[in-house]
Design goal:
The complex is a heterodimer of chains A (112) and B (115). With 112 residues, chain A is an all-beta fold. Chain A has no helices and 12 strands. The model of chain A has no long low-confidence stretch (mean pLDDT 93). Classes of the chains: A mainly beta (112), B mainly beta (115).
């Protein structure tokens, strides 16, 4: 069965710090990979996605993620976080089948 | 354009009662998904509808859960004889067909509390 592991449940950073959120998945076949974000009081929004091609994908608001197939990883990065990045971040994988499999989420708090 | 909408936004019910949750997908989206998110956990797949095909019910946790969708429009998720462990946020998502089919667009969710 597919599974997704997010390494940290809570992350606290100061503004301008660099961010890296880990995501590892277990699935042996071809995958589509996603990062979703949920800002306080808002619904889930797509941050970025990887289907194929360049393993370094860029999303909205300066976020990027790198797909490393050999490590089954899809880590999310941002060079310099802002207070407005405070949110919960979910990594998700779609392998064979119809469903997205989500990680448990990482709550990011950025101190101003 | 309008996004995915869900109603009610909040529902409090007593254990043993039935509840019905509604999802209006984005117009033209052929696929519709229901997920459940328990406190502190990730989203858990429940059911998937694609056009007029038979739904994928593999994620429904018990026979108390059922869902319907008429064509490519509204879907309802019904939970019968609710239990306290059913308390969660129920999220609906829809996606288009074609090359964008892999991207799901989520609604705001229905927060269900079973007392």
């Amino acid at each position: 069965a597919q599974s997704v592991s997010q390494h940290n449940h809570h992350v606290i950073l100061s503004e301008a710090a660099s961010l890296e959120l880990g995501c590892n998945y277990s699935y042996g076949g071809t995958v589509n990979l996603f990062w979703y974000v949920q800002y306080p009081g808002q619904h889930l929004q797509l941050l970025l996605k990887y289907f194929s091609g360049d393993p370094l994908v860029k999303g909205i608001k300066g976020f990027e993620a790198e797909f490393i197939k050999s490590k089954f990883s899809f880590n999310l990065r941002k060079p310099s976080v802002q207070w407005s990045d405070t949110a919960e971040y979910f990594c998700a994988v779609k392998g064979g089948g119809n469903k997205l499999v989500f990680g448990a989420g990482t709550i990011l708090r950025v101190k101003s | 354009g309008a996004g995915v909408s869900q109603s009610p936004s909040n529902k409090v019910t007593e254990k043993g009662k039935d509840v019905e949750l509604r999802c209006d997908p984005i117009s033209g989206h052929t696929a519709l998904y229901w997920y459940r998110q328990r406190l502190g956990q990730g989203l858990e797949f429940l059911i998937y509808f694609q056009g007029n095909s038979a739904p994928d019910k593999s994620g429904l946790p018990s026979d108390r859960f059922s869902a319907e969708r008429t064509g490519e429009s509204v879907s309802t998720l019904t939970i019968q004889r609710t239990q306290q462990e059913d308390s969660a946020v129920y999220l609906c998502a829809s996606s288009p067909s074609g090359v964008l089919a892999e991207t799901q667009y989520f609604g705001p969710g229905t927060r269900l509390l079973v007392l």
